[in-house]
Amino acid sequence: MPTYAYACKQCGHRFDAVQSFSDAALTECPACGGELRKQYGSIGVTFNGSGFYRTDSRGSNGTSTGAASGTSGASSTSSSSESTKTASAPAS
Questions:
Q1: For 62-82, what is each residue's pLDDT tens digit?
Q2: CA-based radius of gyration for the chain
Q3: Which segments within 9-84 are labelled E, that is strand?
Q4: Locations of Low complexity compositional bias (predicted)?
Q5: Could you give the CA distance from residue 23 to residue 81 in angstroms, rounded to a whole number?
Q6: Which has the closest alpha carbon to 3: 14, 12, 13?
Q7: What pLDDT shows up at residue 44?
Q8: Looking at residue 42, what is its pLDDT?
Q9: Does residue 26 contact residue 17 with C-beta atoms inside 8 Å?
Q10: Model confidence pLDDT, tens digit, residues 21-60
Q11: Up-side HSE of residue 40: CA atoms within 13 Å toward CB?
Q12: What is the C-alpha to C-alpha distance for residues 63 and 69, in angstroms, rounded to an integer?
């Protein structure tokens, strides 16, 4: 169940209330009986695992390491060997 933050418009009293999505919003301040307003804040989101940040696949000196370099190294090796095969094929 989510927690909602409320603040009173008259006395400034602030509090949190745990409510279901289907519950109606609170309208009366428990301290003074004044009108409440719901407060909205930032949501804390955490991304776990690799690949979410630009620096995850980079070494300390700025060069690629890990799986990213293995993939790029394999593609450059295969493309250079293919060009060698293509160049030697017409000669035979």
A1: 555 544 444 444 444 444 445
A2: 30
A3: 14-18, 36-39
A4: 58-92
A5: 66
A6: 14
A7: 72
A8: 73
A9: yes
A10: 899 999 999 999 999 999 988 777 777 766 666 666 656 6
A11: 0
A12: 9
